User: What shape does this take?
Amino acid sequence: FPSRLPNVGTTIFTVMSALAAQHKAVNLGQGFPDFACDPQLLDAVNNAMRAGHNQYPPMAGVQVLRDAMSEKYQTLYGRKYDANTEITVTAGATQAILTAVLACVQPGDEAIVLEPCYDSYVPNIETAGGKVVRVPLTPGTFRPDFDKIAAAITPRTRLLIINSPHNPSATIWTDAEMRKLEELLAPTDIILISDEVYEHMVFDGAAHQSAARFPGLAARAFIVSSFGKTYHVTGWKIGTVAAPAALTAEFRKVHQFNVFTVNTPMQYGIADYMQDPAPYLQLPAFYQTKRDLFRAGLKDSRFKLLPSQGSYFQCVDISGISDLSEADFCQWLTREIGVAAIPLSAFYVEKFDQRVVRFCFAKKDETLRDAIERLRRL
Ligand code: PMP
Ligand code: GLN
Assistant: This one.
């Protein structure tokens, strides 16, 4: 039968992790921590299971977790989301984003993505029957280009997806940029998906500019969070979406007939663990130390380091090392040097080679040192 997504193959993350395993390479490709989460979080989930929280939770998620997220948004970003009508627990950010896209994009609607972008956005829009409109971030700096975004908007534009801190470029949007976006969207009825899964990984004293802080954006936004990223448990696949009640109502219509709801004990466990904000408040410093260790290790190498303002990624320019394309270089690096990375071209629909690859530094210090030692040989 005709393929729904004829251009989709296996994700680059799966491909590179398999290659890394095959060659016993240090895996700095796919973004996930190689260290354990806080045992207190495990205890909290265990306690929830033993307390009998093992049947279906409410469709939108358990009350205590929605309450905890509502409080967190208010404290951190100054916006009150109603726990009952404006927050939904999802099976990770991936399901949240697909569900939000399906909820608002009708066949023929246009949806804008800013390239490079996370690899699920484009297939998600195509699944909904939408027309993908790709707008490049400024080459080299990866900053949003508002003239280009403005030029891409038409009466059919239904959706814009943004992501800060940004995967893969590790840039973060500034307050001024968020205000500019707010101004640009003001005369439109465009819906925004703000993918904020790396919200707690911002460095050098910068603040995360959540769309929740900007009334004109929050009023039209699905704001996506991931506990997998925040609590070092990417395999748990659990996150949330915060959105105004009217958007949430549409979101839940799709959600209830997609996953219906998300596993109960993790929800209770996370809600319990969230009573202490320290784990996420400490995250910027925790990851900044890792970023600095990794950058210091490569400082005198032939890799040219790009800025890493947020997320757990470090991009490097490889043009001083190799004439291979990014994709071939990542394969070669994994096989011959024993370090896996992700080519930036994987985040573009039309593979665009700019000689940049992405490393993930969400790793034990010893893993990072091992990788550095190998990379410095080049
Ligand atoms: N958005 C971005 C930008 C990501 O990097 C990721 C994780 N790689 C996701 C969404 C998906 O997050 P989750 O694992 O919670 O589905
Ligand atoms: N978000 C992770 C990354 O960018 C990978 C998630 C996945 O494997 N789909 O590396």
Remarks:
- The longest helix spans residues 283-298.
- The chain has 15 helices and 13 strands.
- The chain has a mean pLDDT of 97.
- The two ends are 48 Å apart (CA to CA).
